[in-house]
Amino acid sequence: MSAEATGRSRRGISIFRAEEATPILETDFMGMPTMTDEALAAGGPEIYMASAPGTDVRVAVRQTPEEGGFSILHVRFKADYPVLRHTHDADCLYYIVSGSAYSYGRRMGPGDFLHADAGTDHSELWTEEGAQVLLVIPPEDYMPDPVSS
User: Fold this and answer.
1) How do residues 59-79 score in pLDDT, each as one tens digit?
2) pLDDT for residue 23
């Protein structure tokens, strides 16, 4: 949710409450990517849109460039959840709040960060026990394309 949408001023301090975070499926946040036949066969669209049972993605903070230029998704991954191969159009940062996640053979636990440069292949990102993750991304990765008339 943006500061403008909530009437919050750009200057000063804003508090974003967890109970106000919007489920991603109720927003226009991050459109459906182009997927390979393999990803489509593996249930990619359903997984991508966070409809897999036990997985919850909420938009905790959403800012335009004028408001500060970053947003945070609060993601809860169920146990044994594989994240399908994908990339982001901008650098992104994953912060592990609880549980654990694996990327390229390395285990990350609470307090660990994963930074991915724009265009980096996220083909190996999964969780064995489940995890809560904060995904911090700039607006160029999620702002919807303007509709052309």
Assistant:
1) 898 887 777 778 899 999 888
2) 86
What is the per-residue pLDDT for 145? 42
HSE-CB of 66 using CA atoms within 13 angstroms: 4
State the CATH number of the domain containing residue 125: 2.60.120.10
Q: pTM of this prediction?
A: 0.72
Dig out the tokens for 53 from the structure: 């049972």
Whole domain around residue 58: which residue ranges? 3-8+23-141
First to last CA, the chain: 26
**Domain count of the chain?**
1
148 in a structural domain: no
Q: In this model, does residue 140 exceed pLDDT 60?
A: yes
* Sign, Cα dihedral of 36, 42, 48, 49: positive
- Is 105 part of a structural domain of the chain? yes
CB count within 10 Å of CB 84 equals 20
pLDDT at site 89: 79
Q: What DSSP string runs through 94-148?
A: EEEEEE-EEETTEEE-TT-EEEE-TT----SEEESS-EEEEEEE-GGGTSPPPPP
